[in-house]
Design brief:
The complex is a heterodimer of chains A (258) and B (489). In chain A, 27% of the residues lie in helices and 14% in strands. Chain A is of the alpha/beta class and 258 residues long. Chain B folds into 2 domains: 6-108, NADH:ubiquinone oxidoreductase Nqo5 subunit (Beta Polymerase, domain 2, 2-Layer Sandwich), CATH 3.30.460; 173-452, Cytochrome-c3 Hydrogenase, chain B (Orthogonal Bundle), CATH 1.10.645.10. Classes of the chains: A alpha/beta (258), B alpha+beta (489).
C-alpha cells in the first residue's frame, strides 16, 4: 500500500513538472533557423544562361527560364543553395507548403502554394470531424513518424476534430506516404475502395507526390496519384508536423486566407 | 587466423586481389567453424555476379578480437548452387534467402527458402489440430506504421508460431545506388530508413571517404557523433513512450512522446531537419554550430535530460509497468546468439555486441562508450537497455559539446580507389548498420550491399512470441521496433 501511494505521488509531481505543453496553431513564433521551410526564389537575382542549380539538384526539382522549383520533387537538401553563384534560392522558415493541385507546387518567386478548400457539401460533412486512415506505401517511415508526432501533446491533432482511425471503413479519407511500391499497389487500391464515398485522399511527402528519391525505380509507381486521385499534396522530406496540420486545416477551410 | 580469409578494419578499403577465392566446401567449413564456437558471427553474406561466375562474400565479425574477416568463393553460372549454411548455422537463414532472391544461387538444403522481398507465392507454415486457429494481420495495419504481414498460429490466446512476411516496402535502393550520381546517392542513403537517417548516411559517407582516402576534420567527426547520439536519444525515448502507450500507462506515454520531439528539435537546431537530413555528406558536414549556439544547445539538453530522467524513474518504478514488462517475450542468450541478433535486442539478451565498442571509428576511438548489457532477454530488458543508453548518450553529448575542436567542417572527396572492397559499420540506435561496397577498375561501384540491423533481428521477434499470448504481441513488437523499410530496401 505505501508503495502505491508513493507511486501516485510521483505521478502527480511529474504532472505538475510537465505543465501545459500544447502549442498554439498557427504558432506564435516562427520556426527557428536553420529549419529549411519553403524555398524562396528571387527572380531578379537569377542570371540567365546559368544552369548550376538545375544541374546540382539530385531530384530534378529545378528548371530554368524562368527559374522554377517544383516543391513536389524538392527534398529540401542544400545542393541548389550551395550551387547558385547569385544567391537566387534561399530557404525561408515558413512551414506552409501544401497545395490542392499538382501544378500549384511549382513556384517561381516567394509565393505560397494554394489550397482550394473543399466544396460546401464536403465541408459540412468533414469540416468539424475528419477521420483519416493512413496507408504507408513504401515510405522510409519518416512521414509516418511526423504523422505520429502530430498526435503528441504538442501538436494535438485531435483538438481540431481530425483523427487517424484503424479501419478504412471508419474513415472519410486516406493519407498516403511513400512512392507506392508495386508490392503495396493492390493493398492501397483495396483500402481506397473500402472507404465509403464521398472521400478525400491526401498525399504526404515527396515520395507520395512524385516518387521522391526512388523516382524511376521499377519497384515503385512514382507517387500516389498514379494509382488513385489525390485531393491534397503536402510536400516535404518529411514535412514538419505544422506543414501537415496547415494543409489539413486549409483543405477544410478552417484557416483565414492570407 | 588462417589463409582462407583476409582481415579487414572497419571502414578501411582492401584491394580486391588480396581477397583469396577459396573452394566452396572450404569456405562453408570456415564460416561454420568461425561462427559455431560463438567467437564469430555473420555481418554480411551476399553475392556479386561477374561474367559467367558468381562470387559469394562472407564477412564475419570476431567481436571479442575486434576483427572483421572476409572470405570469398565462386560458383559457376552453369551450376548456381552450393550447400546451404543454415542447417548448421541458423543466423545465415535470412542472408541465404536474400542471396537466392538477388542472385539466383541456390543454397541447397536450406530448410525454409521462402521469398523475402518479392511477391512470389508465400507458403506459410501451418499448425493443424483441434481448436487451432490462424490470425492474419497486414500489410495495412491499424496504426500509423509500415506495412508487413503477420501470420499467427494460435490455440486460444497462446501463440504456437508467428511468421512475418515482408517486402512490401521494397523500393530497389541497392540497384538505384549503383546508377545514381553522388548527390542522389547521399539522398538515397538517407532514405533507407527514415528513423535512421544519420546512421545510414554515416555508414555511406565512410564508404565514399575511405575509398577516396579522405581524412575528415575532427570538428566534423564531433558534430557527426553528436547527430548520431541525438538520433539514438530521440528514438529510444520515443520507443519508451510507445511501450508506455501499449500497456496503457498514458502519463508516461505522453511525456516520453513530447520529449522525443525535444530531441528531434535539437537535431533540427543542428541540421535544419528534424531527422537530420542533408547534414552529413561525404567529406564532412554542411552546417556548423557557433559558440553561442553550443551554449544554447547545452542548456536545452540539460533541461531535457532532467525531464527524461524524471519520467524514466516514474516508468521503471511503477509496479504495474514492471508486471507487464518482466518475463514477457523472452529471447534466451543461446537463441539470441544462434539467430545473430544485434543492437539493444542482443545486449538485452546478454550478448556483448556494440560497434562503438568493438569496431570504433572516429570519435568513439578517443572517447570510449560504455557497453550496457542485461541478461533476462525480456521486454523489460529491452526497455531498460534503452533507458540506460539514453543516460549514456546524454553524458556523452555533454562531454562532446564541451570539447569540439576549432576546424573546418568539410573537405571535398576525390576519386574512389579502383578494384577495392570496403566494409563500413556504424552502431545505429537499432544496432549494427553495415554498408559494403565493391568498386570496379574505374572506381565505380559494382556492388553496394546494405544490411540494416532489422535484417538480423526480425527472426528474434518471431522467436520471442513463441508460447506467448497474442495480446502481448504489440508490446513485444515495440520492444524490438524493427524497420520495414530498412529491411526491404
Amino acid at each position: 500500500m505505501p508503495d502505491t501511494i508513493s507511486n501516485m505521488w510521483t505521478i502527480i509531481k511529474n504532472r505538475l513538472q510537465q505543465g501545459y505543453r500544447t502549442q498554439a496553431f498557427p504558432p506564435r513564433e516562427p520556426l527557428p533557423v536553420p529549419f529549411r521551410g519553403r524555398p524562396v526564389i528571387d527572380p531578379a537575382r537569377c542570371q540567365s544562361g546559368c544552369q548550376a542549380c538545375a544541374n546540382a539538384c539530385p531530384t530534378h526539382a529545378l528548371t530554368t527560364h524562368p527559374l522554377t522549383i517544383d516543391l513536389g520533387r524538392c527534398l529540401f537538401c542544400q545542393d541548389c543553395v550551395a550551387a547558385c553563384p547569385d544567391g537566387a534560392i534561399t530557404y525561408s522558415q515558413d512551414y506552409r507548403l501544401a497545395a490542392s493541385r499538382r501544378e500549384d507546387l511549382r513556384l517561381r518567386d516567394a509565393e505560397i502554394p494554394k489550397v482550394h478548400r473543399l466544396e460546401e457539401q464536403m465541408r459540412t460533412l468533414f469540416g468539424r470531424s475528419l477521420k483519416l486512415r493512413a496507408v504507408c506505401a513504401g515510405s522510409c517511415n519518416g512521414c509516418d513518424l511526423e504523422l505520429q508526432a502530430l498526435n503528441n501533446v504538442v501538436f494535438d491533432l485531435s483538438r481540431f476534430g481530425i483523427q487517424c482511425v484503424a479501419s478504412p471503413r471508419h474513415a472519410d479519407g486516406l493519407i498516403i506516404t511513400g512512392p507506392v511500391t508495386t508490392r503495396m499497389r493492390l493493398a492501397l487500391e483495396k483500402t481506397f475502395a473500402a472507404v465509403p464515398d464521398p472521400k478525400i485522399v491526401i498525399a504526404i511527402g515527396a515520395c507520395a507526390i512524385n516518387g521522391g528519391p526512388f523516382e524511376g525505380s521499377p519497384a515503385v509507381c512514382n507517387g500516389a496519384d498514379a494509382v488513385i486521385p489525390v485531393d491534397l499534396y503536402i510536400p516535404g522530406c518529411p514535412p514538419h508536423p505544422l506543414t501537415i496540420l496547415d494543409g489539413f486545416l486549409r483543405l477544410l477551410g478552417r484557416l483565414k486566407d492570407r | 587466423m588462417n589463409a582462407l580469409g583476409v582481415c579487414l578494419a572497419n571502414g578501411v578499403p582492401a584491394a580486391l586481389d588480396t581477397v583469396p577465392c577459396v573452394d566452396v566446401a572450404a569456405w562453408r567449413q570456415w564460416i561454420i567453424e568461425t561462427c559455431k564456437g560463438s567467437t564469430g558471427r555473420i555481418v554480411a553474406l551476399f553475392a556479386d555476379a561477374h561474367g559467367d561466375r558468381v562470387r559469394l562474400y562472407a564477412i564475419i565479425g570476431m567481436d571479442l578480437q575486434h576483427e572483421l574477416w572476409l572470405a570469398a568463393t565462386e560458383v559457376c553460372a552453369r551450376a548456381l548452387h552450393y550447400p546451404s549454411l543454415t542447417p548448421d548455422l541458423p543466423e545465415a537463414h535470412w542472408f541465404e534467402r536474400e542471396l537466392y532472391e538477388e542472385s539466383g544461387v541456390v543454397p541447397q538444403g536450406h530448410p525454409w527458402l521462402k521469398p523475402l522481398r518479392t511477391d512470389r507465392p508465400y507458403p506459410f507454415y501451418r499448425v493443424d489440430g483441434e481448436g487451432i486457429h490462424e490470425v492474419a494481420v497486414g500489410p495495412v495495419h491499424a496504426g500509423i506504421i509500415e506495412p508487413g504481414h503477420f501470420r499467427f498460429q494460435c490455440h486460444g490466446e497462446k501463440i504456437f508460431h508467428l511468421e512475418i512476411q515482408l517486402g512490401y516496402q521494397h523500393r530497389g535502393v541497392e540497384s538505384l545506388l549503383l546508377q545514381a550520381p553522388p548527390a542522389r546517392r547521399a539522398i538515397l542513403a538517407e532514405s533507407i530508413a527514415g528513423d535512421t537517417v544519420i546512421g545510414h548516411m554515416l555508414a555511406h559517407a565512410h564508404v565514399v571517404e575511405q575509398l577516396a582516402g579522405r581524412a575528415i576534420p575532427a570538428r566534423a567527426e564531433g558534430l557527426r557523433v553528436i547527430a548520431l547520439e541525438l538520433e539514438r536519444l530521440a528514438n529510444h525515448v520515443g520507443d519508451l513512450g510507445m511501450l508506455s502507450a501499449d500497456i496503457g500507462f498514458l502519463t508516461a506515454a505522453n511525456y516520453f512522446g513530447r520529449l522525443r520531439g525535444e530531441f528531434l528539435n535539437l537535431l533540427m537546431a543542428l541540421t535544419g531537419n528534424r531527422y537530420g537530413r542533408s547534414f552529413i555528406r561525404p567529406g564532412g558536414v554542411l552546417l556548423d554550430l557557433s559558440r553561442t549556439e553550443i551554449a544554447a544547445f547545452q542548456k536545452r539538453l540539460t533541461r531535457s535530460a532532467k525531464e527524461v530522467q524524471a519520467v524514466a524513474r516514474l516508468f521503471f518504478s511503477a509496479t504495474s509497468v514492471l508486471d507487464r514488462l518482466e518475463q514477457t517475450g523472452i529471447v534466451e542468450t543461446t537463441a539470441a546468439q544462434a539467430l545473430g541478433l544485434v543492437g539493444p535486442a542482443a545486449r538485452a539478451s546478454g550478448l556483448h555486441r556494440d560497434v562503438r565498442h568493438d569496431y570504433p571509428t572516429g570519435d568513439y576511438r578517443s572517447s570510449p562508450f560504455p557497453l550496457v548489457r542485461l541478461t533476462t532477454g525480456d521486454v523489460y530488458a529491452r526497455a531498460r537497455i534503452r533507458g540506460l543508453e539514453v543516460q549514456h548518450a546524454l553524458d556523452f553529448l555533454q562531454r562532446r559539446l564541451k570539447s569540439l575542436p576549432q576546424e573546418k567542417i568539410f573537405l571535398a572527396c576525390g576519386a574512389a580507389q579502383p578494384s577495392a572492397i570496403i566494409v563500413s559499420l556504424v552502431e545505429g540506435w537499432r544496432g549494427e548498420i553495415a554498408h559494403v561496397a565493391i568498386t570496379d577498375r574505374g572506381g565505380a561501384f559494382t556492388r553496394y550491399k546494405i544490411v540494416d540491423p532489422s535484417f538480423h533481428n526480425w527472426m528474434g521477434l518471431q522467436i520471442a512470441m513463441r508460447g506467448g499470448q497474442i495480446s502481448d504481441f504489440p508490446l513485444c513488437n515495440k520492444s524490438f521496433n524493427l524497420s520495414y523499410a530498412g529491411h526491404d530496401l
